[in-house]
Amino acid sequence: MAGQHTITIKAGGSEKDYWKDLWLNRQLLWILSKRDISVRYKQTLLGVAWSVLRPLATMIVMVFVFSYLAKIKSDPGIPYPLMVLSGLTIWTFFSNTFTQISNSILINSNLVSKVYFPRLLMPLSSIAVGFVDFLITFGIFLLLTLFFKHPISWHIVFLPCFILLTFITSLGFGLFFAVLNVRFRDIGQLIPFLVQVGMYACPVAYSSTLAQGTWFEKYYNLNPLVGIIDGFRWCLLGDQAYFNPQSLYSTAVLSIIILILSLIYFRRKENTFVDHI
């Protein structure tokens, strides 16, 4: 029949064969992605509404704590809720995608032990859930800009670049932790902690101007998420939002290096997954 293909499993297959199999199984990627999205809100009372309530509730709490209690100022001319939600939008994409990828092998353990397919499909399919949540939060942000009568900057044309960087960064870190999570199950307990701490280590609820001129500024800019969040905010809110291009250079270089190393590590350990599940 048209459209069918045969995959021959053999020892010592080349790297080229692996990526070819990955492409031939692209329909499975689509099926897994749809399943992950439907399962996320299946049998929940509010369903997709959780994707609206979570960022709104988080934004309100952050505005209250950082703006009203801690008296931290936003970038000049930018309403504090917009500054927070813009950072929260891209951070949520990273954190959700990173978490889903890190748990992807264990979640699909029944498939790993029974069916052959390139295991990289499982982490890739997990990205769909994070991206859907991102689109919902981004829609909320656009509505909030109308409420505050704050125009979207023309810099938005660069937005896909920062979304791509977020994808590369989350996939790089996620693949590494996905392998560790199969071998050491307590990694699953560590991941939510890292996400929680990471949110406060990144300029989600505050501006990176707080790090300007400090002794730790150069170390602060080594955090790949700093350049991504500041750049994403700059794309939406314009030149009023603080953005140091130097942080973007380190972000791009570190993210690509981490992704390449994680892909190599994942490929080397891929065949051992079934032994630990």
From TrEMBL:
Residue spans crossing the bilayer: 44-66, 78-99, 120-148, 154-180, 187-206, 247-266
Keywords: Cell inner membrane, Cell membrane, Membrane, Transmembrane, Transmembrane helix, Transport
Subcellular localization: Cell inner membrane; Cell membrane
Example GO molecular function: ABC-type transporter activity
All copies of domain ABC transmembrane type-2, residue ranges: 46-269
Keyword presence, Transmembrane helix: yes
Tree of life domain: Bacteria
Family as reported in the entry's similarity comment: Belongs to the ABC-2 integral membrane protein family.
Protein name per its UniProtKB record: Transport permease protein
